[in-house]
Amino acid sequence: MIYQRLGIPTVATVAWTTDQVLRRLLPGETSHDWVDPTGRIGLVERTIPARAIGQKLAKLNRPGRFWLTAVTRFGKAQIVTVDLIGQEGDVLVFVSDMDGLDELQKHIESGGD
Fold first, then answer.
1. Considering all CA atoms of the chain, what is the largest pairwise distance in Å, rounded to the nearest integer?
2. What's the CA gap between 40 and 96, in Å, rounded?
3. Order of strands across the sheet with 41-47?
4. For the segment 38-70, what is each residue's pLDDT rounded down to a tens digit?
5. How far apart are CA 102 and CA 86, in angstroms?
6. DSSP 3-state of 78
7. Please, what are the domains in the chain?
8. In the prediction, which pLDDT does 29 show?
9. Quick one: 94 exposed, middle or buried, by C-beta within 10 A (0-12, 13-18, 19+)?
């Protein structure tokens, strides 16, 4: 994992590879991708809901609870701008208060409404 953080390509361990495959096959089974050492803040990856497609993604933010920071589109990650519009297949990366994961899920499923 240290090599991954440093951007050094390596052959992945079986445990890491299995975890990544399961995250894609069973997305509801994992609640977060990374958590800070205090357990309060985490990175959360979610697939864009149908209601957010064609909408400005900035409305998915809830200051103090969760914030959309990046989108992976067609395999390429990008930092979210205020004008970025959601597209089918987008993978959304939020920074979230770990106590707010249920609220985050409901909020993004509603398309930010």
1. 42
2. 8
3. 34-35, 41-47, 91-97, 66-73, 76-79
4. 888 989 999 999 999 999 999 999 999 999 999
5. 21
6. strand
7. 1-30 (no CATH), 32-109 (3.30.70.1450)
8. 46
9. buried
